[in-house]
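ping. complex inputs:
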Amino acid sequence: MSPSFEMVVGLEVHSQLLTHAKLFCGCENRFGAPPNTLTCPVCLGHPGVLPVLNEAAVRLGIRLGLSLGCTIHHRSVFDRKHYFYPDLPKGYQISQFTYPLLTGGAIPVRSGPEVRDIRLHRIHMEEDAGKNLHAGIRDASHVDLNRAGVPLLEIVSEPDIRTPEEAVDYLKKLRQILRSTGVSDGNMEEGSFRCDANVSLRPIGSSTFGTKVEIKNMNSFRFVHKALVFEVERQSELLERGERVVSETRLFDSHTGRTLPMRSKEEALDYRYFPEPDIPPLVLDPEWIEKEKASLPELPQERILRISREFGIGEAEAEILVVEEELARYLDEAREALRGHSEKGGWPLEKGVARLVNFLLTEVLREWNRKGVQVLGDSLSSAEIAHLLALVTEERLSLSQAKDVYAIAVESGKSPRKVIEERNLSQESGEETIGRWIVEVLAENPSEVQSYRDGKDRLFGFLVGQVMKKSGGKANPQKLNHLLKEALGR
Amino acid sequence: MELTRQQVLHVARLANLSLTEEEVEHFAGELSRILDYVETLNRLPLPPPGLHVSEAAKPPTPLREDVSRHSLPVESALSNAPDRSGGFFRVPRILEEGR
Amino acid sequence: MSASFFSSLEEFRKGRDEGAFSIEESVRHYLDRIESHNPSLGAYLTVNPNAVNRARQLDNRKARNPAQSPFYGYPVALKDNLHAIGLPTTCSSAMLANFRPVENATVVDRLLKAGAIVLGKTNMDEFAMGSSTENSAMGPTKNPWDPARVPGGSSGGSAVAVAAGLAPMSLGSDTGGSIRQPAAFCGVLGLKPTYGRVSRYGLVAFSSSLDQIGPFSFSAADALALTVLVSGPDGKDMTVSSRDPVEMERDFAMGTRGLTVGMPEEFFGEGLDGAIAASLERARAVWESEGIVFKPVRLPSAKYGINVYYLIATSEAASNLSRYDGVRYGLRSLSVPDLKALYENTRREGFGPEVKRRILLGTFALSAGYQDQYYRRAQQVQALIREEFDRAFHEVDLIFAPTTPTPPFRFGEKVADPLSMYLSDIYTISANLAGLPALSAPSYPTPSGLPAGAQLIGPAWSEGKLLRMAQVLERAVGTKRPPDLFSKKGETAA
Ligand SMILES: [Mg+2]
Ligand SMILES: [Zn+2]
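pong. complex structure:
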């Protein structure tokens, strides 16, 4: 981007909600069923049907509002938004327009070395549309209405985002909150977390907004980043040439990494919003909101501070763990498992916890980034990892052995216990046993011992190697070093 | 108010009704007369719009329990369809993208 | 053959339980009359082919289990905008000519659960838009008092079915007068319940905030029973109140002495036909003789009711009718080269002129740049009308008004001028706008022998009281049936 321009981005996220049933009918809210098998007269938009609002969808809206510090409106209103499209059965979408459920709130995002609040404009409830399919069909399109009527929250940010990185961090944080509060599974591949961006540029120092372009079809964090990087280049080139940015909707093409103008529709859009007469204004019981507040899980910001405090690590490191909900839970669980080992082994818990945090931030995080949630599966459960690190703490396994064991376990799908057993990998720290191996090695290599004692220092390494070999690699290296030096009397 | 041909055509486009030239003329005249009649409302002095106080005091809205029920058998869901293909409703090829 | 097999629901129950007739006999009576008279009247669009079967089944089951609802085996007709599985729901529109509902309307479910038998589906103005049943894609329905005259609308078929003895009772729907106006034109009682009294689930929507289902009958007691049966909370309609319908029976059982009834001067002035005014004067005398007190009230904004109605109802209708797009059900044009043509040609071919007119008007009233001036403004005046009714009901128990400005008009008289047609609802519309219960009771016929209707409007949930008033008039006027003018076969009086 030219240094004279600043990027201004606002994001609109559509998040499907984790309810059993759809927003206005009893059809199951489920992805991947055969076409039109999750439909009824209501979500098919038959003549004469009426919507009945799902309590759980409202509850999840309240929970998200509480988690993001939004104002929860005790009275909100559903509206009809009109347009014709085959995936929209009634010719209108039931949404909230003038009086949304939630307004305000913010999401703190990483902005370079700092943390900045991205303010939220509004969050409203609405129903999803069905799906039109075109691929592989000649001269026709097909309509599947299984998704029609699935509950959505549309989360609209203020235009506070200034870089593609902030945009991605905002989305990651939002997704994490949606997941940790049980509001949504945030699954981008299945479309339960979808993002559009409004992007404009303005001269640095300007407080007015430039002409904005809406970008759609970015279905991964990587694509959001790519699309924004492309768009900011495109717009700044236009502006530098003295041309104007056209207000339009553009689609991101993941094959080329470019955004392209969407084929514009002939009809001018006029949604003709008006209050949905079939749904009375949504009036909430304040006690309900209090009840939800009390049952809300630890919020990400709270958890970062707690983990930083309890595990003695920096907030940045704690945040890495917390952003990935499962890792944070894994850490908490593994610590509880370590507690048992520390009590049995008579060593201080902190010693094991320090190893655990390090191991998680290095070994586990590396595999997590490679393979995702499967590295926390049964064979690598928090109890298994605690066991592995208890062995290290008790010096029955070296740290490098533990790393090897972990890597093998991840690859093979076997548990660390099984790997250790199969490879006979316990560490020998007993002074008596190590002493016996030393005595034998010294007896077997009299000339080398003599040369060492005469000043040939490098032969120490040779002797360590011989003892290690005799131990089958199991000797605790520190113990071995210490005892060998003693035995050689130097 | 007098509705122009242009306005009638715009509204017809929004409503996805195609009108013959005759109909456009006819409806422009007729709707103009109806609008002239209903427009007397605009001469009434009224308080500024806003939420009714009585609305705010209403009891909480009863909501539907989040229980999923059996959907229609797909044959029933498609039973009124003018055109179908397998389990899908079939429509002319959609050219606009990415909506 | 007599026009009715029994004179009331109570008489039906007695005859049925005492074995004076079988359910099948009663149903056959009405089916025979439909066969004889419907070709000339055009009240029914569809006759239930399963009605006799069901009657037999009910007769058999009755033998095993005698204690039943009064509606067990009772035949009723349904306006063709109410869903009943097994019968098409056409709304008298080419758009839905072949639509087969996959569910029953809630009111139909309740009727069937009580054991009632659906005789068939009745003609109406297309999508309930009209006041004469002339806007039906299926042809007109004739007024049984004078076949040159309209039966009123939009529930013309349901009104005629009862008036002509082709059903003992029927259900219709009322958005701006569509039950009361045809009731008045056909000489029967028609009740529009309080908005939120009856579930609208399975009623094809015209204007969602105004539509309400209600009965046609000859007697207030019958109307009460049918209304109570179909009313009450429904998990499928969020706009239904949780109130217990039984309150209507309690109110109905109380006397009328000492009630105060308001007469809005706005409703008895210019524009009211002299014959109707005279008929209503006699009705008032009846009530006064029963100790009911009349006094003038003011409803100054009521005269804007038509204006408000034709903005709100058309806006909601334009929205509700967006779903008819030729994709999932209903008509699809044969000419659909692309998506735009699918929509535009389907909707051009499927909707009649009145429906198109209202879709255009409603779309305009909601469109960008005009919504504040039209739709919002109408909502504000609607609030004003509500407030005026509220105030009036601090002074009086009920309001008395004409149902229609004139007796039934002739076919074609108003079709060319939509505005004059709209004005025939001028007295009925405000009750819908205010969500209030209202009925039209048969008053004394005009000197030329045409029916006239007396309208009563009450505060919310006062249906019982309204029907009690209607019953007083009913006893004085007596039940008047149209002469059997249209019989094709030679019939003998039973
Ligand atoms: Mg949206
Ligand atoms: Zn459904």
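Residues 488-494 of chain C have pLDDT under 50 and may be disordered.
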